[in-house]
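Problem 12. The chain below contains 74 residues. Write out its predicted structure in token notation.
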Amino acid sequence: MVKRAKAIVVDPKLCKGCHICISVCPHGVLKESEVVDNRGFFLPRVIDIEACKVCKLCEMECPDFAISVMEIDD
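Solution.
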């Protein structure tokens, strides 16, 4: 059974734009936003939710617990 993501949520209050989540994703699901947030950070954004295999590396490696991967329930 192939796992699929329903959503990947980045909490803008917790994320400091370190981009560890982008660098650890083996499937290229995340990318740096082109828009600066109100604190001056380029937060990660989801560019290809279909490519996510729900490995949750982004979630596990985030030092600020700012990203959550929600799996589709079958």
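Discussion. The CA atoms of residues 7 and 70 lie 5 Å apart. Students who got a different answer should revisit the alignment rule from Section 12.3.
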